Amino acid sequence: MADFEPGPFKADLERRTAGAIEALKHDLGSLRTGRANTSLLDTVQVEVYGSMMPLNQVANVTVPEPRMLAVQVWDRSNVTPVEKAIRSAGLGLNPITDGQTLRLPIPDMTEERRKEMVKLAGSYAEKAKIAARNVRRDGMEALKAAEKKGKISQDEQKRLETEVQKITDKAMVDIDAATAAKEKEILGK
């Protein structure tokens, strides 16, 4: 009954669920909350040199003031495409051009916009929960297959299924906590 290693199996499931949580945190970081944060612009793609590139590959983003972002474009010829990309990103930001620097004042969020952001945070959380449940399903299927092939006993299968469920439950708690914190931040509570 060798061949099947519970340690690496469990570590792989933990790594994959942690990846789903990290992806959620990255997505939540891109949501605007009324305060300046460089991650607001992480999703912005700029059309330069004949292809689409992430903003952080053509400019440096800083937070000079609590309600202001500054985008220092490295190549003067890219200032207009960067400005256009920020305006069309749907973030509600209007760049003010000052040479090779774009200043982005962060406007106050309306109640309606806050509710939209909370909904979006919820959809990001649901995506992460689906990813965590998919990891659980893969783990359970691997355990059933290992038991069927005689690599692990039925008792070991049941014990490991409990471990897989614990990993999934912890991931769900972490996802809910990250989402609740972001919703609180968005609603300004």
From TrEMBL:
CDD domains: RRF. InterPro entries: Ribosome_recyc_fac, Ribosome_recyc_fac_dom, RRF_sf. GO terms for cellular component: cytosol. Keywords: Cytoplasm, Protein biosynthesis. Pfam families: RRF. It is found in: Cytoplasm. The keyword ATP-binding does not apply. Residues 24-187 form the Ribosome recycling factor domain. Responsible for the release of ribosomes from messenger RNA at the termination of protein biosynthesis. May increase the efficiency of translation by recycling ribosomes from one round of translation to another. HAMAP family: RRF. Belongs to the RRF family. NCBIfam families: frr (TIGR00496). This is Ribosome-recycling factor. It comes from Sandarakinorhabdus cyanobacteriorum.
